[in-house]
Predict the 3D structure of the following.
Amino acid sequence: MISFKPENPYSTESTRMVHGIMFILPSRQRFIPYSWLTYSAVNEKETEIQFHYTHTVVTVTGTNLRFIHESVIRHELLALRELTPPASARANGPTVSRIEITERVSD
């Protein structure tokens, strides 16, 4: 079972490598294995991360997202969820206001 602190949009496990991330949206949940991750990038303002997987792209928007990006690089992120309302998050910690999952279309 994945547990969250009320003010945190993420759950991590630093003592072992995890197999993937559970993205928790208000309407659905989606697990995506780390082995499908081709690359990820966070913008300079740390307000958007794009995770590029073999079959999908996940865009995460919020604030102070560098910690989340670094947790992904280390394969420590278990789950990520949108905070509702976003203002309920800690002022200096990461907040996630939106997670968008877009399926890739083959060319």
Notes: Residues 10-103 form one domain. The chain is about 5% helix and 45% strand.
